[in-house]
Each structure stands twice: as structure tokens, then as C-alpha cells.
User: Fold this.
Amino acid sequence: MIATRDIRRARERGVTLLEIVIVLAIIGLLMVVGYMAIRNVTKAALREDATSLTAMLRAAHNMAAMSGKAHRVVIDLDHQAMRIEVCEGKVKLTKMDKAGPAEPPRPEDLPDPKKIFGPGSTLPPEIAQSVAGKDPLKVAAALQGKKVPDQCGPPTLPNGDSDGRGNERRIRTDEGVHIRRVFVQHLQDPALEGVVTINFFPMGYAEKAVIEVGHEDGGQFTILVHGLTSRVELKAGEVDPDELMRRDGAGDKADER
Assistant:
């Protein structure tokens, strides 16, 4: 009688332990499935934003070729936003050490050009002569160590996007995605903050550029803009920027970007 009761109790304990093991196994499986789902969402957001930026760069190239006017993609690293602009007149690129500020100076914040060039001007004659005929607003900005942005604005041509998202977009930072660095031909150093532009010209060429789009939990896509052909290439993972930036038009290695 006692043995039977002990066996029954042992069986009951065995069933209880088995149930606990099964529950723990199910919990573990759900955790794995949940983690994989989060990872898949992360990868999807990263891929979609990298693909969206790639599409904007390709659209800028096509719009430049169709309109005969220079177009550019403006990347605001501080706000993780980008937009396409068309530029009037000749675009002059100046080699700089770093990207410009996120907010360019407004005309109302600059000295009145009439006071600079008008009667009673305090400009030394040699400076007045050297800037004669130039844009007074840009001269006023230069005297304060600032720069007036180029005459660029919203394009009039459709960008040909199939998703209807337009010429202004934002990176989904709320999902952990961000543009890490931008290498572009007119900048000596990679841009980590501020505003950087990548220019596309009507004759079918562009500034060489490398854009790194990553996620805070890991993973990265790299976008390459080839100079001579304006070809825009999206690659999964990291790419050595110098493989593109330190090569000349013939594909040979160059001493500088």
C-alpha cells in the first residue's frame, strides 16, 4: 500500500516537472521568435531607408539629365533628413574641410549691402575694387565669415518615385536607423554633422560620394555614387570609402580624394 502511494506521488511529481520543462521550452521558443521578429523589423527599416536614399540619388541624376540643370541631394545629418533641389546657373564647388552648418544664414541676419557699398562705405578701396560686380549679399556674408547658400530650391520635374514619397524625406531614427557618415568629393573630411550636398550635373557626371546608413543595433548599408557615370550603387555591409574616393577617372589610385 505504501509502495503504491509512493509510486503515485513520484508519478505526480514527474508529470509536474515535465509540465514545467514544457512551459520553459515554450517561453524560450517565444523569446527566440520575438527576437528574430525584432531583428527582421530592424533589418527592414534599415534596408527601406537605405533604398529610399538610393532612389533619391538616382532621381537627382535623372532630373539633371532631363532638365539640363544641376540637381543635388541635400543631406541634413543633424536632423537626419534629405531632399532634392534644382540649382539655377553654374554650380561652383569649393574644396572644404567639413560640411556646412545645419541652418545657413538668413539675409535679414546679414549686414545691409547698401550700407557696405553705398555712400560712406568703410570698405578699403582695394577690397571694394576686388568685389565689384559680385553679389552684394554674398559679399556681406563673406565679411562676417558666413556663406549665402547657392540659388537652389525645390525641383519642378517629377522624381519618378513609385511610392509617392516626394522630394523630401526623413530617416526613421525612431526605429534606430541613421546616416552615420557622408564622404563627398568637395569635402576633405567625412561629414558627421551639419548639411552636406551631393551634386549631379546635366552632362551625366556627379560628385563621388559614399554614404553609410546604419542601425544602432548593428548592420549597415553603404551607398556609392560614381563620379564619371553618376551610377548609384547600394551595397550591404561596410565598404572602404577610399576604394571609391581615392580613385581617378581612369580607376587608378589617387593621392587624395
In short: The longest helix spans residues 2-67. The two ends are 91 Å apart (CA to CA).
